[in-house]
Amino acid sequence: MNQQSLVRQIFASTGRSYDRMVKVTTLWQDNMWKKRILTIAEQTTPQTILDLACGTGILTFALAERFPESTVVGIDLQQEYLQYARAKQRKKDVKNVKFLQKNAEDVSEGHYDLITASYLPKYITIDVVISNCSRILTPQGLLIFHDFIYPEKAAFRFFYNVYWVFLKALLGMSDPWKGMSRELKHIIVETTWVNDMKDALELYGFTNIQVEPQPLEVAAIVYAVKCNS
Ligand SMILES: C[S@@+](CC[C@H](N)C(=O)[O-])C[C@H]1O[C@@H](n2cnc3c(N)ncnc32)[C@H](O)[C@@H]1O
What we know:
Layout: H1 3-11, H2 15-25, H3 29-41, E1 48-52, H4 58-66, E2 71-76, H5 79-92, E3 97-101, E4 112-118, H6 126-136, E5 137-148, H7 154-172, H8 178-190, H9 193-203, E6 206-213, E7 219-226
Parallel strand pairs: 1-2, 1-4, 2-3, 4-5
Antiparallel strand pairs: 5-7, 6-7
Helix pairs in contact: 6-9, 7-8
Bound molecules: S-adenosylmethionine.
């Protein structure tokens, strides 16, 4: 099964409970990680922002609120998630956000000062996406990617594996989340997104490349600046 089909399968029908699930399953760390993304984003004053794999728009709306003068585009593969995002937009009456159904690997048009992605890197061919981002980022534009990682330190790994025993049981109790319960840990253990991203950022001429493992090493944020030329 290719990555896109796998993503469609494991996220099918999860949109309604996603916002609650992401808080509980990350033990409320998701909020901290997104706050850190916003703080890093403040290195720039972006006019145009692209949020790849926006899902139900948690980060997209936070960016739109933090940078009210900007235009924010959120893209995602899943129509179902976008429907929830658009419903929130109507409810909050947010004007500076637009949601589009698109594969992050196919985004190659537009000009953006800031590109973000939260929980996308493990599902994509990093080289393709960074290459596209290098074309659509404006000079000095900022790229911030965030996702889960498998802890390297033995002590963290031990607690992580224990946590996953409970998490698998929790996800497995809800029909829509059963696919995620089966696949997600394996995807996280196998992914090499941080190193792939560092290599791709160097290859496509990014500067100030920073890798920030988050507390307990269960997630990382990687960010870099597009060079002038
Ligand atoms: C865990 S959700 C994260 C949503 C949001 N970024 C957040 O932080 O809450 C992962 C999202 O990635 C999307 N996704 C995965 N692969 C994608 C791709 N190639 N192009 C666009 N979206 C993708 C899925 O559809 C899903 O909505």
